[in-house]
Request: fold
Amino acid sequence: MLAKTLQPHGGVVLWRAFVYSHNSDTERSLQAYDEFVPLDGEFAENVSIQVKNGPIDFQPREPFSPLFGATPKTSLAMEFQMTQEYLGFSTHLAYLGTMFKETLNADTHVLGKGSTVAKVIDGSLHNIPLTVMAGVANIGVDRNWTGHIFGQSNWYVFGRLAWDHELTAEDIAKEWIAMTLTTDDNATTHILAMMMNSREYVVDYMTPLGLHHLMDTGHHYGPGPWVDNLGRDDWNPTYYHRADKNGIGLDRTSSGTNGVSQYAPYWQKRFSNPSTTPKELLLWFHHLDWDYPMPNGDTLWQALAHHYDKGVAGVATMQATWLTLKDNIEPNQFNQVAMSLAIQLKEAKWWRDACMLYFQSISKKPFPATFEPPKQNLEYFRSLQAPYAPGQG
Reply:
């Protein structure tokens, strides 16, 4: 109806695929696919279905949405999030160019090897003329629009990739650094390393190994893996991590919610087996024993602790690096980022300690010898309010 009305005027309808039914018990990550794939071919040519990069909701890491490539007769638009709703709002440094490229370069295998998500949304895979990349933005009342100066880089990389998705996240970051912070070669090298590693650090101290939706659901800012009392099951973090005495993770194989069935056969086979599932998505697709052996010989429990520690250490490295660059950065910019990195380090430890204490209360496993025991107990973290979150957004 809308498309027919707009078509004579050159209008386009963008219809978001972020839907999940209040009346359905189907696991949430499956619902967009179930809703739209049966409608392939029913939409007018001036309609594009706008799909989030992953099947849940802008988590620090998700697999690519199975909708990409599944509707060969329908234009699919990419929806990225530039604002850091689940990545520390405007106090954490998280360059999302690496996340955007991870999704765009993901190979759906729907028409064999090379069927990348980028080729789906640029129309080349299925000869679709209408192509769209959309972004959820974060202009605020701060003088610099985004609060954290590095938040501006996520606007920039989104715009550059929307016009040319073959550019690299690294080259775009270099452009942004030169226009925003410094042209000094040595400083640029250090800032580039911070940016290119930053998102992985956030994944490690928030949701490693495929965990997701662990945030406090009241404000989306701090950790809340214990939350289990909301109006819908799939609003609760416990719905997604499924931690119990036997292990952790959401089984999306054929023995669980069967989320793997929505992917091409290549990925169905890989995602169905823990040993062939990419490590970074392990607990997205599998519920595994706390003592599940990882490739390096660690148990799953030890690997979780290692990743949480690695994320905190990464933020400490960024902070130390930034403090060496004082002579190369405009003072106001330098001080603002230094302040934010101090907050981020404190909160990375908050995420690590709260999540590991909660999971330990279920697993009953001792912390690995290399893991520094938290100074507070679990009840302290359950009662802690987000100290810097200004509300939603």
